[in-house]
Amino acid sequence: MNSFTRDVIRLASQRSVSARNDGVEECSVLVEKMLVEIGAETKVLRRDGAAPLVYGELKSTRSKKTILFYNHYDVQPEEPLDLWKSPPFKPEVRDGKLYGRGVADDKGELVSRLKTVESYLKTVGEAPCNVKFCFEGEEETGSVHLHHYIEDNPELFKSDAVVWEFGTVDATGRPTVTLGVKGMIYLELVLRSLEADAHSSYAAVLPSAPWRMVRLLNMLKDKDERILVPGWYDAVEALSEEEVRVLDEQPFDEVSFRRIHGAKDYVSQMTPSQVKKALVQRPTGNIAGIWSGYQGPGSKTVLPKEVHCKMDFRLVPEQDPAELLEKLRRYLAANGFGDVEIILESMEPAARTPYTDPFAQAAIRAAETTYGQKPRVDISSPGTGPLYLFTRRYKVPSVDIGVSSEESAIHAPNENLGIENLRMGMLWVGETMELFAAS
Amino acid sequence: MNSFTRDVIRLASQRSVSARNDGVEECSVLVEKMLVEIGAETKVLRRDGAAPLVYGELKSTRSKKTILFYNHYDVQPEEPLDLWKSPPFKPEVRDGKLYGRGVADDKGELVSRLKTVESYLKTVGEAPCNVKFCFEGEEETGSVHLHHYIEDNPELFKSDAVVWEFGTVDATGRPTVTLGVKGMIYLELVLRSLEADAHSSYAAVLPSAPWRMVRLLNMLKDKDERILVPGWYDAVEALSEEEVRVLDEQPFDEVSFRRIHGAKDYVSQMTPSQVKKALVQRPTGNIAGIWSGYQGPGSKTVLPKEVHCKMDFRLVPEQDPAELLEKLRRYLAANGFGDVEIILESMEPAARTPYTDPFAQAAIRAAETTYGQKPRVDISSPGTGPLYLFTRRYKVPSVDIGVSSEESAIHAPNENLGIENLRMGMLWVGETMELFAAS
User: Fold this and answer.
1) Do A35 and A66 sit in the same domain of this protein?
2) What is the pLDDT of residues B247-304, one digit of tens each?
3) Do B204 and A262 touch (CB under 8 A)?
4) Within this chain, do residues B201 and B320 fall inside the same structural domain, yes or no?
């Protein structure tokens, strides 16, 4: 077994489930130790009620530029346990893959950055450029304290380019460069109409919270799932010609995409080409959960007193979450729903680096050199992350490059990481640093 | 504590939640025991998969007429548990009221009939007329087997008049005679769009079951909660002049009605007079429960694979449930929802006895004698029961008279029964039997 695989095993053997604060502190100690071992100067930042943020730094005389690696050392809960073929926190190699909670998301990526830099130190003596490591411990619970850490230590997180958390390699071995993430507003809507659930015979005269929610939600989107809040799309920019070209070039196995999800068709009968564009540039308004009244077996005749609806709205550049939330509030109030309670869970804008940015091009060219083929380029992930905290504040570009695969079962049982993907990914990170330092 | 209160406590201490078949068998044994104790001849009718129906009979030489008392010994689920001030199945007396699941609906009423007949046996030696008791154990799940029991034993349930399940006494001590019930269709709608919950970032392209449910439900009713299924109101008859007069005479403390339920206003800003008519003659379409996706704390970004909605539709004479269900199916299919699964839980037509019927008048005059005041007369309960099985087959009248109050919190936490109401209700039942036997 090679040393980098041993290091992933070492890190993934330490539980660090942030959702129930299980092993997070212990894992932060281990992560700092691993940084010290490669020779980094470290700081462990702390805040009340927050997981420690482990920071590391290494200077280089080869370039004045600084690259920042963002990763997280916390993991998703391992449940359901009975579906794991080997214990989630005793990583095991089978058929060239390492199995364990966190080996792909995000401990494998974290180690790949760390060991690449260590390789430079052990061979050339120093990395191609200055390096900063930002390893947080609560990404899986929404990175709720990350912005505080950054606001309190603005100099620490300054860089010229950011290598973000993750990246995937497809079944043919083709790597992906991702240039951004969508933003998000996550909220819960609550409507209350009665003080207690009533007998449903009174539905003839008493107001129904769930029916009001139906009307409220029906007013939020049309049948093509376009959001009806006035001004919602005002700031949405059309994709550039270059972005459209890049998107059109991307392979997309739409048949297997639908098969994986068991979907018969797409929203509004989109074509596969429209699907690719929508994943990048379509703002969403998703019902993540809705509940009211009786959910048990058989029948209970109840007029429910209240209804709850959790929603996530994915945003694209340059939609401003706070502004949209205000538009939503005004729209609901103007249409008879001024009494709806809006519980805001989180809010973050999108972040995106232009395709033509030199750092994006460095990552793309480095992929070509390392893998001998053009990478897939995602203009934006359809997902969300706190990337904007770095790219907006410091006005720097970012790329997502990494070592996971589409079959890594992230967040699921039997999470895994291909050992060859890990090895190749380290070479890619090194080449990206070289090209960046030289640019 | 008096003996009839002790008997209600005895019966309500036995769980009998038919929705999850919890204690129903045990409760049927207890009910038969209580019938035997007063000297009734009993039969326990059984069918596969059905709750036992406990039948009791007592002959009288005082009249050839037979009165049938219908009650049920099963109860609604007790959830939500945390809102109960005392354990739901350990009935407790506080301030002249008995608290516990089922004390009002319907175990208090059941005991009031039983103990009234027992009083006659212990004093006069026999009841004013022949008596039959029909105590079923699955009223709260829609009385789905009652019609089988009746079809299989048509002679057993023959009578000249039926005293139905329940009745309320208002805050001023005025009793209510109710002359019918609404019908009902209870069903669950299920929409499925994916094979498994997906990451909500894919909401940009993959279909959402909950959004489709919003559109489906929005199509079922307009904003005044009028049902939009074509033909839904075709068979609905206007109230007669006499019914309108009786309704107009009814007191209705609409302020306290709204206060009890904590409702700010009525559906479509109805006037109090419209509310009274709607409770009698307005068909309803109620969302009794809806659920999909994530319902826990904080945020989970999931695109749910399916959504469920439980609905009850209350019907008035002469709406035919089977016909309406077919209209609903056709309407949904014609509007793009042919794939919705409709799980039918129960179906029953309305039943109503004319105000001028002699048995109705006997119950009204008995109330005047017992309470010293004119009773409230409800042309129909807003609720539902399988009354039609008796009144239609045997062409006999029925009345609802009873001992609950408007504050009994039926189907809700802290269900309760006033002990003085229980005592008076027993006198009223006796007087009704006397007048009926003499008529």
Assistant:
1) yes
2) 999 888 899 899 999 999 999 999 999 999 999 999 999 999 999 999 998 888 899 9
3) no
4) yes
